[in-house]
Amino acid sequence: xxxxxxNGANGPEIDEELARIVAxxxxxxxxxxxxxxxxxxxxxxxxxxxSSPLTGDLPSLRALETAGIGAVxxxxxxxxxxxxxxxxxxxxxxxxxxxxxxxxxxxxxxxxEYNTGAVxxxxxxxxxxxQLSVPVIASINGVTPGGWTRYAKMLADSGADxxxxxxxxxxxxxxxxxxxxxxxxxxxxxxxxxxVDVPVAVKLGASWSAFANFATQVVDAGAKGxxxxxRFYQPDIDLETLSVGPRLVLSTSESLRVPLRWIAILYDRVxxxxxxxxxxxxxxxxxxxxxxxxxxxMMTSALLKQGPEYVSEVTAGVLRWLTEREYASVSQLKGSVxxxxxxxxxxxxxxxxxxxxxxxxxxxxx
Length: 366
What we know:
Blueprint: H1 12-24, E1 36-38, E2 41-43, E3 47-49, H2 58-67, E4 71-78, H3 79-97, H4 118-131, E5 136-141, H5 148-157, E6 162-166, H6 178-195, E7 200-204, H7 211-220, E8 225-228, E9 235-238, E10 243-246, H8 257-266, E11 273-277, H9 283-292, E12 296-299, H10 301-306, H11 310-324, H12 330-333, H13 351-364
């Protein structure tokens, strides 16, 4: 049996047996096959390091690979970074135009010292591709088609195995309707997806209306994968300074509930790869997401807390769970508790809301 964290309850004895199974390799007498496919890319494991500061550093990227990560998603290149970089370059070019033509070398500052975005990002991408054997996915975060097609193409040409388009938009204008926001987002996806030869995954928030329909439209626009869901970091108010600023709150396993529901609903209904993100902390979380229908599970908060080596612990827990229940592979497991396969499909819809409330009340009134 396994405990609530997905770890073996029988301690070292199970660990020794697990080590023997793993050493035997995949097969009837060996370890379950953890391989999966995401965006058409073969992965050795469904555990992926999602976009975070941890994936923006080569030593930590190498540590993640050593620990057994299936793929890595680099930190997002933000539209604001690109715009700032462009304005800095324009400013320095204007400055150099007025410089004394007889000035000695070094009078005009070097442009690479003013780089804050794309050039540094491309360098990280190329180095990661040179040094890692797992797929490297680049990430861009923007809301307008504008120059994103150009940057998406640059990332693809620099060796990215895929691109994750991180859509983060706050529709704060009172005259901006939902149809307009959806149409502009779909246009962005279509423009980026059609500009590159590598697959594009779209990372979405959960607050779209009629999400199943919108997800289908995103796929029709060219997305080869959906990453569900983006955790938007909300502003907070400092009561001492009365200022508004960001406040980072890492996720917990409870955050997995929303991705679980929608992945289970979309599985086998939308022809695209599905990635679960937000709330993947333990091996139990990984297994739940796979049961719902995810092709991969993406981790951020857990790795920031525990470090790259935590991947090995989570992987061991997944192997242990599969072995104890005699699953041969992730493929055999995937989607078996999706809405399309579960005995009570309404459990993923409104009916579950009433059942949850009434069951809690019954427990409280005992």
